[in-house]
Amino acid sequence: MSKVAVIMGSISDYDIVAKAVDILEMFSVPYQARVLSAHRTPNQAAEFASKAEQNGFSVIIAAAGKAAHLAGVLAAHTTVPVIGIPIQSSALDGLDALLSTVQMPPGVPVATVGINGAENAALLAVQILALNDGLLKEKLKDYRLKMEKSVEQKDIELQKKLQERLNTKGE
Ligand code: RP5
């Protein structure tokens, strides 16, 4: 199966990135996680992206905070789709990373998820892989169904709580 690369700009991003890893593992998608920085290890980051396709990666997830150029730099060195996760790691609460990641010039796209949106980044990666993988597509349908059931259950619980509230007030 095609692999997903999960790149983070710093090990301090890992707590958030771990949520993406959890999702990939849940779908049994092979991945490789690395710390590579657009600013601190620019040559290694460029080399990784340049060789990503030949090394069997079909999607790259790139998480970075502050002046978050990682996803864009990786995207500049490959045509493998890059999904950016802006990390909330500075005084600007992640808005800096969001804008740095999402505002790519025409020609070099980065599919940017919300600030700290690691789960969605992984799900989007799984959805991309599922285009050519029927089993993965089925797993995604199951995942959506479970999500639907869980929200329906919460709604039932809410209705119960509200009814109890009304009953207590009526006593
Ligand atoms: C970014 O700067 C990293 O992605 C991280 O979110 C932020 C802070 O990095 P550290 O100083 O914690 O290594 O490049």
Walkthrough of the structure:
- With 171 residues, the protein is an alpha/beta fold.
- 51% of the residues lie in helices and 16% in strands.
- The protein has a five-stranded parallel beta sheet, with helices on both faces.
- Helix 1 (14-26) links the parallel strand 1 (3-8) and strand 2.
- Helix 1 runs parallel beside helix 5 (118-130).
- It is globular, with a radius of gyration of 19 Å.
- It starts with a strand and ends with a helix.
- The mean pLDDT is 97.
- The site of 5-O-phosphono-beta-D-ribofuranose has 10 residues, from strand 3.
Roughly what fraction of the amino acids lie in strands? 15-25%
Q: Strand-and-helix sequence, N→C?
A: EHEHEHEHEHH
The description of the largest β-sheet is:
5 strands, parallel
Query: What integer value in Å does the Rg equal?
Result: 19 Å
DSSP summary: helix tally? 6
Structure classification? alpha/beta
Helix content: 40-55%
**What is the number of E strands?**
5
**How far is it from the N-terminal to the C-terminal residue, by CA?**
62 Å
What would the principal axes of the Cα set say about the shape? globular
Biggest sheet strand order reads 2-1-3-4-5
Q: Which runs of at least 5 residues are low in confidence (pLDDT < 50)?
A: none
Bound molecules: 5-O-phosphono-beta-D-ribofuranose
Q: What is the averaged pLDDT score?
A: 97
